[in-house]
Amino acid sequence: MAKVSNISRRRNSAQAEGSSDYAAKREELVRIAARLFQEQGYQSTKLADIAREAGLDRATVYYYVGSKEELFREAVEGVLDENMAEAERLLADTSLSWRDRLHAIYIRLMVSYEENYPATFVYIQEQMHQVGAEETVWAQEIMKKTRAFDQMLIGFIREAIASGELRADIPPRLVENALFGMLNWTHRWFTPGGPMTGLEVAEAFWSIFIDGMNPSTEA
Fold first, then answer.
1. Alpha-carbon distance 206 to 7, whole Å?
2. Which fold has domain 72-217?
3. How far is Cα 156 from Cα 102, in angstroms, rounded to an integer?
């Protein structure tokens, strides 16, 4: 226990000093962890796996990070915060229709997934079930953010339906599951540099969705 505490103190000191070499190694560990989380699953990946891929022993990894969860947090939390901030910006932009707002955040999400690959795909893949099961303070906080973001997204849909911009005979939650389910499933097959960009995939999905949700097609 004393050894772990000593490593923790050294880690905190190194983070406070903020050397470029130390920061670069942390970033490398985050990238390696994100890739392994995607390939093996969050729950199945151990710190020893990450250490081996980085060419370090496990004790040295603890000098850079305190836990596997910390690596996950570094990989995904900033991206989630950025997407929530964009949703809030769109919410406040009254020059846009509700359908335009929904379209904008939809495109933003897929482009963000591509730009931050594979970290965001790990988040989608895990859906936070395994991470949330750990019941740590951070896991509970990110679950709270995830639910808040979900409420923002379904709010766009409800407002678009209420304003007559989308058909009203389909429950909003089903609409959300259909629309964002298409994006969420891309973690199974999409990789940057493929035949289609993230933007092209999102626009293709949107066209499929919006043709079916046009008020003129309402039963």
1. 49
2. Tetracycline Repressor; domain 2 (1.10.357)
3. 6
